Amino acid sequence: MKGTTSMNRTPRATRVLATVGAGALGLTLAACGGSDSSSGSSTSASGGGDVPSWCGDKDIVLGMTDGFGGNSWRLVTTASAKDEASKCPAVTDFEYADGQGDTQKAISDIQGMVAKGVNALVVFPDAGEAILPALRSAHDAGVVTVPYRVDPGGEDGKDYDVFVDTDFSDAGRLWGNWIKKILPDGGNILFLGGPAGNSQSRDEADGLHEVLDASGGDYNYIGEQPFEVTNWDPALTQKVLTSAIAQNDKIDVIVSDFGPAIVGALPVFEQSGRSIPAIAASDGNVLSCFYEDHKAKNPDMKLFTVSTQNDHSRLAIDEAVARATGGEVPKSSTYPSSVFEDSTTKNKPVECKPDLPDDVYLSAQMPGSEQAKLLK
Question: Do 185 and 76 fall within a single domain?
Fold first, then answer.
């Protein structure tokens, strides 16, 4: 399922500046070499080891553009893409450009990549359909063009080669099934989403309702529907959650599609003599460590997380490189949602790394220690 808006996560300011420049990507894996800048740069992408099936034998220059690349989630996601590209010796150079939240710059970046002569281009089209004409022009110019995560409109094979999507409602269904397990008779659910009208949070809410509304349990959805608006901003999230705690004597589950952002307000439960409730969210080191630090004092607190999907970019790279180098195209162009942590089972234990920064996503393939280098 296509989503028209995906989160531009803003990290907690306690450890990481929200506007870390894309130049920090130069601190990533040695196999990627070189360094990047917000205006775009070239990086050697030849790696050792086994050559993956999606890597063909035709040498290419690979480009990647972000609509906005300046927060911890984007830094890790882009570095993951570079790491993936480094696995293919046929990728002789890797070009990157950050649109810095400016739609016109994002369009110019795509046009600039085409002018430089890249053979394949992966695009995070934050501005949605505003980016479609630039994608179409790149595709028409013979560049293998692969937008991912945010729906730019258009059609596969006509306006670009393939849209590498994710079904955000899957995350909602995963949360719903867990809530049904821990609260089979029902409960009060508070869902904290992103900007008003964004399709990611809306699709997640649809998946949540799909499971719980058919379960027969007495589930009540409190607050604004289909979700409380937080803009994925920790400061606004704290304000919204603090208000919800004051207005509702009973909250059984907090659902959040940016789990780390809720940490700042959770102590309000303790301050008011209430147990922190169960939490169903996306993962983040700060949330996991908060759980470990507070679970003993909060009998109702449980934690279930899905991956934040930093590695969505890896599938987009695989698709673009395969099509441009003559490699094997992945069987699916949809990146799946997956369970990362579940405090109620031994199979998916909560993972806290107190020696690493808050803004590390341990569900990503990239080790937390490598992510930490990006965030300095």
Answer: no
Nearest CA to 364 out of 6, 4, 80, 75 is that of 80
Are 183 and 214 within one domain?
yes
Residue 1 lies in a domain: no
Q: How far apart are CA 117 and CA 289, in angstroms?
A: 46
Q: Check which CATH number belongs to the domain holding 112 and give it.
A: 3.40.50.2300
Give the residue numbers spanning the domain of 297: 168-306
pTM higher than 0.85, yes or no? no
Amino acid at 116: K
Structure confidence by residue, pLDDT tens digits, 195-242? 888 888 999 999 999 999 999 899 999 999 999 999 888 889 999 999
